[in-house]
Structure formats: structure tokens, C-alpha cells
Amino acid sequence: MPPTTTTTTPPPPPPSPPPPTALTPGYLATRLSTLYASTLAHTLRACSYANFAACFPTPAARRPPVLHGLWLQVVGKIEAKAREEFEGILDERDVVEGLNRLEGVVEGGRGRRERERGGWGKGEGLGEGEGGVVPHLLPPLDLYNAHLAPQLVPIQAELEERLRSTRTRNEELVTLIRTQREEVERLVGGLEAVVRDLDGANEAMGEVVGSVRAEMARL
Q1: What does the pLDDT look like over 105-136, one tens digit per residue?
Q2: Residue 132 CA from chain centroid, whole number
Q3: Alpha-helical runs (H) found in 23-139
Q4: Counting beta carbons within 10 angstroms of the beta carbon of residue 96, is it exposed (0 to 12), middle (13 to 18) or buried (19 or more)?
Q5: What DSSP character marks residue 133?
């Protein structure tokens, strides 16, 4: 009998994971949660036991273990309440779904931009701008200028035109004031000359009056 050959059937490939749903936190939602967690931790560190004990000096001196346990309970309840309210806001406002939709819009716009530039497939990842700079890591002033530049450019042009007009008017006023000052100085110089002439005339008249008085006294 010919030898029988057995064929081994390869196992079926594992099922592919389901696509992420709208409630799966994406990049923006994850960054938001991370930022909130770090901010909350920083805030809670400000409420240290030393600061807490300073508000209750008598229990801190007589029963420090009890006060320390109370401090742990207070901080824990504040943290738990803050996290609970944050999660409630995320669920109530559908924040994760909205941020995921925003990611889709951003990715769609980036894809259209890359296709228009002929660079399809070479786009940056989510959260990266031109040059590999993550937008949320840019300085606040750069983001502010980029957002308001279209509205500020015409306003800046109008203000510059007003400034040039104001400078022109100021220069004209300065020239007028200088001319008037020179005229006043000339008038003052003329008046001083008249005063000097009057003083000389008074002196001469004084001498004449003195001679007349002496002549009349002799008579």
C-alpha cells in the first residue's frame, strides 16, 4: 500500500480587534484626562499635612496621629469627589465622543491637505503640526497670534495709518509752535528795546528837569 500523507490544516487567523467606538478615548480625550489628573494631583499636594495641621494647632500638638488620619480622609474624599464629578461631566456632555469627532475632522483636514500637496501617506501623526511640533506644546502667544492674526491684520493696518496721520499732525503742530515761539521772542526783544529807550528817555528827562528846577531856584 502506498504511504498515506496527512495534510495539516493551518489554524484560522485570530479575529481582528473591533474598531474603536466613539466612547474609546482618543488622543485628545486621553490628553484631557492626563492634564486633569496632573492638575488635581498638584492641587492636592498644596494641601499638605503641614498646611492642614497649621489650621488645627491644638489637635496637631496633642493628637497628631488622629489629625493625620483625618487629613488623609479629607484629601481622599476631595480627590474621589473631584474625579467623580469630572467623569460625570465627561459622560453628561459626551466629551469623549465630541473630542473623537474633532480628531476625525482634524485627520480629515490633514489628509486633504496632504493630498493637495501631493504628499499623501507622509502626513504627521495626530497632534503633530508642521515640523513635528505638537500644537498643545506651542507657546500660548504663538497659538493666540495664529488664531487672531486674520482679524488683527486689518486692525493693525488701520492703527498704523492713524498713527502716521497723528505723527504728521504732531509735526505740523510742532512747526507752528516753533514759528509762534520765534515770533513771540522777536516781539519780546522789540518790547525790551522800547523799554530800554524809555528808560534812557526818563534818565535824560530827569537831568533836564533837575536843571530846570535849579534854574528856577536861582531866579
Answers
A1: 888 777 777 776 654 444 444 444 445 555 65
A2: 23
A3: 27-46, 49-55, 57-62, 64-92, 95-116
A4: buried
A5: -
